[in-house]
Amino acid sequence: MFDKAKLTAAHRTLPLGTRVAVTNLDNGRTVEVRVNDRGPFVAGRLIDLSEGAARSLGGIGAGLMRVRIRVVALPDGTTEAAAGKPPPR
Q1: Rounded to two decimals, what is the model's pTM?
Q2: In this model, does residue 85 exceed pLDDT 90?
Q3: Residue 59's Cα: distance from chain center in Å?
Q4: 10, 25, 34, 84: which could join 39 in a potential S-S bond, CB 3.0 to 4.6 Å?
């Protein structure tokens, strides 16, 4: 069952269960969410966040925010480090 307070998101192509760090580029806040749905279905949007995730990023009321997304872990448990990617700076 969907819970708008949980830290979840919708993405078009990432596998369901992927954990992603989402950073609000305007205030620097970051939250980790789990992709549990498909979307967004609006052109130009990268990700749809639950209300809880948007609140954590300071995005309630704005409707839209500029974000950066970074995969933290895939559903099989593979992390960036295990995939041979350098850690973020």
Answers
A1: 0.84
A2: no
A3: 13
A4: 10
